[in-house]
Amino acid sequence: MMSKEINTKKIEAEAPEKKSILRVIVHSFFVVPFLIAIFAVIVYLMVRVLTVEPNTAQDYLEHVKIGGNTKRWQGAFELSKILSNPDLVPKDERFVNDMISTFEYSAHERDLRIRSYLAMAMGRTGDRRYSPTLINALQEKDHAIVAASAYAIGLIKSPEGFAALINLSDHQDAQVRLQTIIALGNYKNPEAEEIFLNALSDNEVNVRWDAAIALAKIKNMSGNRILLDLLDRKYLDSFPNIDPMEQDHALLATIQVIPYIMDLELKETLIDLQKNDRSMKVREAARIALGK
Fold it and tell me: Average pLDDT of 6-23?
């Protein structure tokens, strides 16, 4: 009887020891190497993130020139974004010439987005050296290219660009008319007043809206009724294709020009927006406009 008890105790003592040895083996040959591998991957990714330099405007232009179909339009899109930052705009003559030649060569592209984004990219530089190229593009047959070029000219605001845009004000395509009104509005030139007044009765609502904003910039109150509508979210809600973010954009763009033509009704509307609008950005914009 005693012998059996001793054997039982011996087995019980050996069992934990075997489990302990197995645990050490698993930990040494599987868990520790796995943790080391994970740590190494994390270190590699951190080093890569810290050492990889972001693409420059020249890099994206190269994507447009020699990339595949998808990479070309994406490169043009990224170029149009990066050049909206004045600190990232190359000023050297070589880059300007490269941009112009790439834009001209893109006339052979099937994907029209490439040419449109390149036009916008040139406009966002604000560099007048691109103005002749963009003005020439206003003669193209494709309306999307013409609209993008008009938009770009409005950002550069060269005198010759203004004269070219005047001729587009009665274009058959609504998007071209819209971008023309926006571009002319950027000039804040009273010589376009008659064009803006005529655009108040355009059959495209977006053209009417931007004509009212353009008139406000030259201190003409003829579009005030439209501006009051644009400051009314209930009115904007009647357009199901306008999402909340676009509503905010419309309100902010309108509020920005109100100080040019402030009257009692507009002032009361701004006070209401400052107190009650759901967007903090809109409230702040209304406060600033009232302060002006």
Answer: 51
